[in-house]
Amino acid sequence: MKKDEIQIISLVCILIIGIYAGTFIVLINPSILEKNRISEKMNTMLDEIKKNKAIAAKKDQVLKETELVNNKIAQYKKALVTSTEFDYFRDTIRDMANEYEVKVLSDRTSVVADSSKSVFKDNIIYVEKMITLNLDCKYHDFGSFLNRIEDTSIFRKADDLSINKKGDLLSIKLDILSLMIENATT
Fold it and tell me: How far is the CA of 47 from the CAs of 2, 42, 50, 51, in angstroms?
């Protein structure tokens, strides 16, 4: 073969290799890039599916906890003092005091806070009322009386207390707070 023929064949081979390389770069290589992009997207989606499955697995637990909270709210709502019960409690304080040899010198009722609407139901209004008592009694009698008052409702508590010695007795000023439902129409 002649030198020219070898050069032509070499050139044709180089041209064929160039065309093949160009075709690979233009047509085949983008497919590989697209495949890699799709693969990354699939991996991201698989990770999201795993996270969602983990959240879904906790769903039953969250539903149970929500039910427990709702039951507790219903129990508290039932335990809240109504206006009638508050009036009855206020009217019977002297009777309770007599049981424990506690002398009620005076009592006064006042609304402590403005009414606030319930976050759970629009038709319930909660009010905080205070009964201020001035008492004369012995130390242990007062402890029993106070325990009885606080046992009447979980929404009633002794808020402020001042004690002075008065001979054999104590002179006590006691503020009792009571959270109550007013205007309950449920």
Answer: 65, 9, 5, 6
Looking at 24-138, list the stretches that DSSP marks H as alpha helix, in order from N- to C-terminal side: 29-79, 83-99
Each residue's pLDDT tens digit, 44-84: 998 998 888 888 888 888 888 889 988 887 777 777 777 78
Q: What pTM, to 2 d.p., does this model score?
A: 0.54
d(CA 52, CA 1): 72
Helices 83-99 and 139-151, axial angle in degrees (round to 10): 160
Cα–chain center distance at 142: 37
CB 176 within 8 A of CB 157: yes
**What is the 8-class DSSP label of residue 7?**
H
Spatial distance between the Cα atoms of 118 and 74, rounded to a whole number of angstroms: 13
Q: Tell me the per-residue pLDDT of 115-138, one tens digit each, with 9 for 90 and over.
A: 555 555 556 677 888 899 999 999
- Contact criterion met (CB below 8 Å) for 148 and 93: no
